[in-house]
Amino acid sequence: MRYWAGARAAAGVTEETLVTGPLVGDALDAAVAAHPELSDVMAVCSVLVDGRAVGRDAELREGVVVEVLPPFAGG
């Protein structure tokens, strides 16, 4: 899992490997369990799997990259 911007600050790491259940929501829950500070940030983040936006119910395959992106300001 890769964390960007405010998610990275809340997690305290840039990326990590998580072993989770088969859904994106399982991975997100595992990340919050490992880094409780992510809870509020995760509620407003977009989630990408291998570069594609997905929801919590999307299935994960071994070796995919999950990215957590908070809203960005500016443009």
From TrEMBL:
Question: Which residue ranges run through the membrane?
Answer: none
Q: Which InterPro entries would you find in this protein's record?
A: Beta-grasp_dom_sf (IPR012675), Mopterin_synth/thiamin_S_b (IPR016155), ThiS/MoaD-like (IPR003749)
Q: Which domain of life is it from?
A: Bacteria
Descriptive protein name: Molybdopterin converting factor
The species is Knoellia sinensis KCTC 19936
